[in-house]
Amino acid sequence: MTDRLGFSTWEEGDDALALTLWGSTEVSALIGGPFTTAEVHARLRREIDTMNAHKVQYWPVFFLQDNELAGCAGLRPYRTGEDVFELGVHLRPSYWGQGIALEAALAVVAYAFEHMAAKSLFAGHHP
Question: Is the peptide bond before 34 cis (omega within 30 degrees of 0)?
Answer without folding.
Answer: yes
